[in-house]
Amino acid sequence: MLSKINQVIIFDGACGLCNKSVDLLIKMDKEKRFKYTSLQGEYVKTLDIKPDIDSIIFYIDGTVYYKSTAILKILKSLGGIWIISNICYLIPRLIRDYIYDVIAKYRYKTFGKRESCRIPKEGEEELFID
Q1: What integer best gives the mean pLDDT of the chain?
Q2: Which of 17, 47, 54, 101 could covalently link to 111 via disulfide, CB atoms 3.0 to 4.6 Å apart?
């Protein structure tokens, strides 16, 4: 089953902002093209990713994207109106990632930190890897 997964969003399962973002993506992704797992999950250990990364990760067709690029790739994959997010590539990655890092630094303080990772809601089980 895991070998057929080609679009995985890896998020901080304890982060309130990250969990809200996953909730929103699940609603927006009518075609159910994404699978989800937390940074704390077992699936992440099977991927060739940077150790101790504190970033959203988008794994697509064997390629790993981090931080702002991951977000832009996710939005592009949604298609439709979200294709307009490609304009953000005009902003240098260094600046995009700096903004990402500032938000990430204060995400627990602003959006809260959970005691445990997000548990799939009823009907979402097939969207989560572990």
Answers
A1: 87
A2: 17
User: Backbone phi, then psi, for 65, in 5-degree steps?
Assistant: -120, 145
Model pTM score:
0.87
For residue 46, give its domain range: 2-119
Rounded to the nearest 5°, which phi and psi values hold at 64?
A: -110, 130
Are residues 128 and 36 in contact, defined by beta-carbon separation less than 8 angstroms? yes
Q: What angle do CA 67, 114, 124 make, to 5 degrees?
A: 75
129 lies in a domain? Answer: no
Least confident of 3-7, 79-83, 97-101, 109-113: 3-7
> How many domains would you assign to the chain?
1
3 pLDDT above the threshold of 50: no
| 37 phi, psi to nearest 5 deg | -155, 160
